[in-house]
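Hi Q.,

Before the meeting this afternoon, I wanted you to have the zinc ion prediction in hand. No need to reply - just skim if you have a minute. The sequence and ligand are here:
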Amino acid sequence: MMYDLARTERIHRAIADETAPMSHERKACACGTQVTARQLAQHGKCEHCRLTAGLEEGDLDKLRHMLGAAGNSSAKPGFRNHYLCGVQDRAAMERLVGAGLAVPGEALLASQYYHATRDGCRAAGLDRSGIARALEAVL
Ligand SMILES: [Zn+2]
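Predicted structure with the ligand bound:
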């Protein structure tokens, strides 16, 4: 029997692939959050960093306030999903809209309602039931 060097190399390569990092292996995002190695390879950052990229300081607080998830309330996060915005908060709301975290709603005189999207709820840290409440609260 002939010794086939190429074939042996293929087998070794297959074994090496099996020892490659598994997708469920945990790695740290730059923010310190532990995510799967697969998510980090795919997006380069955790979901929170991905969703909130492009926001400025205080924008996330306004999003949490929009969702009743500001932390000082005894009500369940997501019980509300609106933010009546005047001139002074308009830029923050437009950054949230640009990031896909909020959508403009009805206009009221010189003010404008904004509502969080599903991604906005995630960025604000709401869990599954909080997201369901918040999306229901818009209707
Ligand atoms: Zn992160």
